[in-house]
Amino acid sequence: MKIINSIDKLRDELKKNNKSIGFVPTMGALHDGHISLIKQSRVQNEIVVVSIFVNPTQFLEGEDFDSYPNKKEADIKICELCKVDYLFMPEISTLYDTDEVLIKAPKISGFIFEGEKRAGHFDGMLQVVLKLLNIVKPKNAYFGKKDAQQLSLISQMVKNLYIDVNIVACDIVRENDGLAYSSRNVYLSKTQREESLLISKSLKKAAKNIGMGEYSSKILIEQMNNILTQSNLVDVEYISIVNRQFRKLESVELQNTIILVAVKIGKTRLIDNIWI
After folding, report:
1. What is the pLDDT of residues 103-112, one digit of tens each?
2. How many H-runs (helices) and E-runs (strands) does the chain carry?
């Protein structure tokens, strides 16, 4: 595995091989969720590139940019074990200039749910993803379904800007007790970690009830909220049932529904979802 910090050097390396490239962009603090993306890329491509870059433009004032988990040595080891070919680890000054052309999220789908709670977040996210896709020029790029709205907006950007890449949506990976893997899980205290299990419990309840024939979004959301509010440590930001285009649904549509949930537990903000 080669560790590269320079855009030009990475491009030169990739030009040497006329092989299919799979790309997994990350912010580091790699866990089993990231590993599943890398493994899928390894199976489906001849060359695998992973980037680790904590992108400042997608963090809002007061968020955890300065304290975001940094596990550089562990991340490098994980990438080596996963047989990554190139690990791209640029500095902020490598990717950003002082006066940039800006990318803006869509006015509707970019400013609901996460876009409403974190105004400007998706602008920065799309900006860095576009940069990375243009640098690596992969055949396939891998993103997890846990960040469902992010995945949707990246897919829309690729379509709207005619970017020649296949966006691969990868299933959510969960810890043994059901909590979706997230780099921010390390912020949770032992008690908060236990209470966080109400998130996956509420989603499982919704899926079970849908399987029994309950399709009303209003009823399903009420049932999920009843579970989440069992703990006074869980602050529910939103629960919503939407289609794949992130339009709210009054009734579940099989094979076209995502149930979204976002909560705060202490100072830690967690999101999760289930695709129906």
Report:
1. 999 999 999 9
2. 10, 9
